[in-house]
Each structure stands twice: as structure tokens, then as C-alpha cells.
């Protein structure tokens, strides 16, 4: 009876714990903008700005006042969702990022689901049959996954599947120009086109998505498969598994509801690190496939010395990372059979 | 089960190294590759057949041949020469970044682990804040803020690797803080910092070496990733990441050698350091073999 409540309290705790992290992130992104060598106002106003514009920017951001005051101004701007003006497009940075976020999320989430869907069974199989071909395959994938630069994997896949075999469409963004983007309901082209009942567009969108998602998934696969294998090996050697086997439970039952349920915990905890790698690799994959997400936006902004956009991007990614970790923490709390037993 | 303790010094250590190298072919391979990369980094520029920066429009975009082993790029530069020459820069960036984060990270971590208290709390908070960012994204932000130069890529890579060393040093120092030999050193009149530097810190080095080796591969990947998106190294400098980026435009038209060869070099370097790290873990901590 007390179990659901105990879990709710724990989830509340996790939410509260995220607050200092968020404050730390805001402080660091603030300091990053102020670490610009020279006059930050000149950087924010851009290379073409005249003296009057620079003075206006200086006043608007409070660069002419003390650091604590500047920080206060920064927080006030953040609370209204104001991330500044993008120099290269003239739009507000928040709008630019919001418009591109669905593209990045679609890519990242597809890759994550694919990676988990392949890595977990692979790890389990490798652990149940040590030194078999599955185990060797698992080891090979893990080693390759951590050694291959994502941008290199992406290019190799493009060469094989676009240039040599001609199976995949040109690696240019989310949708070929001959298609009109589906009505924006979720912002995910694959889902939106299905909702609109437009199967042509759906097929085109999936075709564009496969290679970048596979590139990202290959990179994400490695740590998950490695952890699953290690955790499964550990639980399979446990006495409770031996007992369950001796009691005559079926192989599948022992594997899934006894061994795997316990191996899941360390796997879920490594997901935090996986997200960190993944969000970074996402930027590189977007560049390789000309994917119009926030990573591509940030790279363009970097090249154009568009500082407000870069800072907005770093902040968005960090918040996304915190949210993903929070989600994992909550899922962890919900599935952990030990939580709530003591209460 | 008798755990193999790392022999102190001299012959037994050598024999142990030989045994590990012989029992694991992959480690031997990694060691050979490592030696190759070091040699290339040291003498590579004087070995290559062509000037890595010399362009010739008559020779542009030629596929691999006897004259140009890895072909030529869009302005007729020899890809093989560029890949070999790039070794030094790539190694230099990652080794200096890892050295920086090792020195700073182990200093912070050791002090935090030894003294605890507010020092531990502040450094812990700092490190948690770094880890709250996706690390590559933080590196992008740092380079953007400090300025787009190679030295800032080194700093950025050092900062994002710092947490790993600080955390490891902290745990390793903490478990030894009240060990017998530390108490003995304290009883014979040694003071805190001296004990930390001469008694505890040397004992944390074996696990730190494993971390360094595993980390070097990751540092190379990060630095190459940063130059791939146009940060740090500028053209026409030969560097693996930027060479892959330059060759990327030619992949779709079938000129694969521009991007693939530097990419393979990069992959091989990362692979070498990862294998070497695994091998070193076998040496240092035989019980944690995977």
C-alpha cells in the first residue's frame, strides 16, 4: 500500500535534486558568454555593427555593469525565454532552436530506440553463450563502436549505401525537395506523415532517417551492449539464478524475470553517460547528413561567430541532457523492485 | 584465489609484462601499433614522399596508385603524406590535453579525497557541473567562447576530461587515507601534503595510467570531432578530422580516398589506445579482466 507513495516521494526528491544542476548549468553558460576575449558587446553585435548598435547591445545585456547585475539580467532574460538575437538569421535564438529541435529529437530518439533494441538482446545473448559467435560479434561491435569516429561511420555508410548501392536517398536533410513537409503536429516527419495518411512522404522521410539514425545508433550501441553483457554475466552467476534453475523454472523465465530484471539496474544507470556521448555525436551526424537540427544550426553559428546562438545551443543541449537523465532516474525508481519495500 | 599483485620493480615486473603480452595477442598488436604511431609522430614529416601542402592542379583527385598510395585530394595534394604528417599534430593535441587534465584532475581529486570537508564539497560541485553538460557540446561552447584556435581546443578537451581524473584520484586516495602505511608515515612525523605526495599519490598511479590510456583515444576522437566541425585547426593544415571534413564533399561523387584514409588513421589510433588501456588494466588489475 505504501509502495506507490514511497515511489512518488522519491521521484519528488529526484526532481528537487535537478534544481542545483540547472543552476550550475545557467552559471556556466553565463560565464562562457563573459569569457569572450575583448568586448563581449562587440561579439554579440556582430562584425557589421556600428558604434550605436554596439552601445545598444552593451546596454541591453548589461555589459557595462558589474557581473552580478549582468547575471541578474541574464536570468531575467532566460525566465522570459529570451536567448538573444541570432546574427545570421535575424530571428530570435529561442525561435530558431525550437523550430529545429524536433529534427534533432527525431534523429536522436530513433537512434536511441534502435540502439537499445539491438544492444540489449545482443548483450543478453553474448552473456548466456560466452565464447560463442554471438559473444565475439558483441565484442567486435563494442570495440568498433567506441573506436569509430561517428562522422567517419556516417561517411562510410553514405559511400556504400548511396554511391555504391544506390539504396538510400541523397544525404541531404530530412526530406527530398520534391516532397512537401507534412503538417507539423509533433514535428517528427515520420509520425506527422503517418497521421496525415501520406504514405509517399512517410516512406521518403524514413528513407532519409535510416542512415543518420544507424550511424548514431552504432555509436550508442557499444556502451549499452557492453554494460548489458557485463551485468548479465554477473547476475547469471548469482545464487538466486542457480536456485531458480534448480527449482525447474523454464530457461526463458530464469533469463528474463530473474536474471534480466536484476541486470537492468546497472544498464539503466549507464544510460546517463550514453546520453552525454549521444548528444555530442548528434552534432557530428547532423553535419555529415546535412540534417537541419540544432546541431547544424550551432555549427553554422560557430562559423559565423554568432555567439548568442552558440550559447543558446549549449544551454538547450544541457537542459535536454538534464531532462533525459531525470527521465532515466524516474524510470529507474519505477522499475526498481527494492524501492518502497523498506517504507 | 591468489590475486597477482603488481611486482614492485625489476625482473619480475618485466616477466609479468612479457606474460601479459604473450597471453593476449591483441595487446601485443596494440603495442606494435602504438610504437608505429609514436615513430610516425616523431619522424613522419621527414619520411613522407611529398610535401603535404604542395598542391598541383594537374594531379587533382587521382585514385590511389603506385605514385600516390592514398591518392590525391581536390587540389592535388598527396593524401598519404598528409595522413602521415597529421599524426604529430593529432597526437600533440590529445596528449597535451590529457596531460593537462591528468595533472589538474589528480591534484584536485587527491586534495579532495585526502582533506575532505569543504574542499571536497566545492570540487565535487564543480565537477558535477562539468558533467551536467553533454561533454562534446561543452567543448564546443568553450572553444567558441575562448576563441577558435588549436590551443583552445586543447584547453576544452582538457576541461571535459578533468572530471574522470578528479573522481578516480579522489576514490583512490580516499581508500588509502587511513591505510597502515599512511598511519605509519604520519606517526614518524610526516605532514599531510608530504604524505599525500610521497606515500598515497604514487599508489594511485597504476589505475590512473589505465585511465590515461583509455582517455587518450577519446581525446583524439573529441579533438578530431571539433576540427571536423571547423573548430581549432584551419586549412590547409594536415589534421585527420579536418581532412575527413574536406573529403566529405567528395564521398557522394565517389572519391572515397579523400575522407576514408584519414578516417581509418583516426580509427586505428583510437583503437590502439583503447586496446592498450584494456591491456594495461590486465597488467594492473588482473581481477577486472573482461
What does this structure look like?
The complex is a heterodimer of chains A (343) and B (290). With 343 residues, chain A is mostly helical. Chain A has a domain at 96-293: MetI-like (MetI-like fold), CATH 1.10.3720. Chain A is built from 13 helices and no strands. In chain A, helix 7 (150-164) crosses helix 9 and helix 7 packs across helix 11 (251-288). Chain A starts with a helix and ends in an 8-residue tail after the last helix. The mean pLDDT of chain A is 81. Chain B is mostly helical. Chain B is 73% helix and 0% strand. Chain B contains ten helices and no strands. Chain B has helices at residues 11-23, 25-47, 79-115, 117-131, 135-146, 150-176, 180-187, 192-228, 240-251, 257-284. In chain B, helix 6 (150-176) packs antiparallel against helix 8 and helix 7 crosses helix 8 (192-228). Chain B is globular. Residues 1-9 of chain B have low confidence and may be disordered. At the A-B interface, helix 1, helix 6, helix 7, helix 11 and helix 12 of A face helix 4, helix 5, helix 8, helix 9 and helix 10 of B.
Report a brief summary of the structure.
The complex is a heterodimer of chains A (343) and B (290). Chain A has 343 residues and is mostly helical. Chain A has helices at 2-34, 40-45, 51-61, 67-79, 93-128, 133-147, 150-164, 189-195, 199-236, 239-246, 251-288, 294-303, 307-335.
Amino acid at each position: 500500500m505504501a509502495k506507490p507513495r514511497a515511489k512518488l516521494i522519491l521521484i519528488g526528491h529526484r526532481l528537487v535534486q535537478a534544481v542545483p544542476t540547472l543552476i550550475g548549468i545557467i552559471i556556466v553558460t553565463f560565464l562562457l558568454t563573459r569569457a569572450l576575449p575583448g568586448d563581449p558587446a562587440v561579439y554579440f553585435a556582430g562584425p557589421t555593427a556600428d558604434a550605436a548598435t554596439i552601445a545598444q547591445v552593451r546596454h541591453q545585456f548589461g555589459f557595462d555593469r558589474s557581473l552580478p547585475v549582468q547575471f541578474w539580467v541574464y536570468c531575467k532574460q532566460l525566465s522570459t525565454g529570451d536567448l538573444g538575437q541570432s546574427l545570421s538569421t535575424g530571428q530570435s535564438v529561442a525561435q530558431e532552436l525550437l523550430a529545429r529541435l524536433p529534427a534533432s529529437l527525431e534523429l536522436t530518439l530513433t537512434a536511441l530506440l534502435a540502439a537499445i533494441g539491438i544492444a540489449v538482446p545482443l548483450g543478453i545473448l553474448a552473456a548466456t553463450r560466452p565464447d560463442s559467435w554471438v559473444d565475439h560479434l558483441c565484442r567486435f561491435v563494442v570495440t568498433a563502436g567506441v573506436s569509430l569516429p561517428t562522422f567517419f561511420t556516417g561517411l562510410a555508410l553514405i559511400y556504400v549505401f548511396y554511391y555504391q548501392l544506390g539504396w538510400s536517398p541523397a544525404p541531404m536533410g530530412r526530406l527530398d525537395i520534391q516532397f512537401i513537409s507534412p503538417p507539423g503536429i509533433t514535428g517528427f516527419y515520420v509520425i506527422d506523415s503517418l497521421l496525415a495518411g501520406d504514405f509517399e512522404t512517410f516512406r521518403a522521410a524514413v528513407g532519409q532517417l535510416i542512415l543518420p539514425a544507424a550511424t548514431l545508433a552504432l555509436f550508442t550501441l557499444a556502451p549499452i551492449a557492453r554494460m548489458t553483457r557485463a551485468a548479465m554475466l554477473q547476475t547469471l552467476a548469482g545464487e538466486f539464478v542457480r536456485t531458480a534453475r534448480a527449482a525447474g523454472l523454464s530457461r526463458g523465465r530464469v533469463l528474463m524475470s530473474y536474471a534480466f530484471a536484476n541486470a537492468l539496474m546497472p544498464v539503466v544507470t549507464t544510460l546517463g553517460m550514453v546520453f552525454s556521448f549521444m548528444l555530442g555525436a548528434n552534432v557530428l551526424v547532423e553535419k555529415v547528413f546535412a540534417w537541419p537540427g540544432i546541431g547544424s544550426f550551432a555549427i553554422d553559428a560557430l562559423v559565423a561567430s554568432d555567439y548568442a546562438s552558440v550559447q543558446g545551443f549549449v544551454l538547450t543541449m544541457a537542459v535536454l541532457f538534464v531532462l533525459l537523465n531525470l527521465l532515466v532516474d524516474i524510470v529507474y525508481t519505477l522499475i526498481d523492485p527494492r524501492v518502497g519495500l523498506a517504507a | 584465489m591468489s590475486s597477482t599483485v603488481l611486482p614492485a620493480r625489476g625482473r619480475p615486473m618485466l616477466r609479468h609484462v612479457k606474460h601479459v603480452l604473450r597471453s593476449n595477442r591483441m595487446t601485443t598488436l596494440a603495442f606494435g601499433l602504438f610504437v608505429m604511431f609514436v615513430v610516425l609522430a616523431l619522424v613522419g614529416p621527414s619520411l613522407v614522399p611529398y610535401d603535404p601542402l604542395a598542391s598541383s592542379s594537374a594531379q587533382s583527385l587521382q585514385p590511389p596508385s603506385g605514385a600516390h598510395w592514398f591518392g590525391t585530394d581536390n587540389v592535388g595534394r598527396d593524401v598519404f603524406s598528409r595522413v602521415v604528417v597529421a599524426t604529430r599534430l593529432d597526437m600533440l593535441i590529445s596528449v597535451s590535453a590529457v596531460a593537462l587534465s591528468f595533472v589538474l584532475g589528480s591534484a584536485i581529486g587527491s586534495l579532495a579525497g585526502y582533506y575532505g570537508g569543504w574542499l571536497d564539497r566545492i570540487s565535487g560541485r564543480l565537477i558535477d557541473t562539468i558533467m551536467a553538460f553533454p561533454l562534446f557540446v561543452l567543448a564546443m561552447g568553450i572553444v567558441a567562447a575562448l576563441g577558435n584556435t588549436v590551443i583552445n581546443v586543447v584547453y576544452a578537451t582538457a576541461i571535459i576530461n578533468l572530471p574522470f581524473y578528479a573522481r578516480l584520484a579522489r576514490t583512490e586516495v580516499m581508500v588509502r587515507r587511513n591505510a597502515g602505511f599512511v598511519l605509519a608515515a604520519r606517526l614518524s612525523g610526516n605532514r599531510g601534503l608530504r604524505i599525500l605526495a610521497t606515500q598515497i599519490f604514487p599508489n594511485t598511479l597504476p589505475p590512473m595510467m589505465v585511465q590515461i590510456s583509455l582517455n587518450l583515444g577519446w581525446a583524439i576522437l573529441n579533438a578530431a570531432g571539433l576540427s571536423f566541425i571547423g573548430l581549432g585547426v584551419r586549412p590547409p593544415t594536415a589534421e585527420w578530422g579536418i581532412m575527413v571534413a574536406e573529403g566529405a564533399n567528395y564521398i557522394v561523387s565517389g572519391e572515397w580516398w579523400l575522407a576514408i584514409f584519414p578516417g581509418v588513421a583516426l580509427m586505428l589510433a583510437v583503437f590502439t589506445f583503447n586496446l592498450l588501456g584494456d591491456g594495461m588494466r590486465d597488467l594492473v588489475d588482473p581481477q577486472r579482466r573482461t
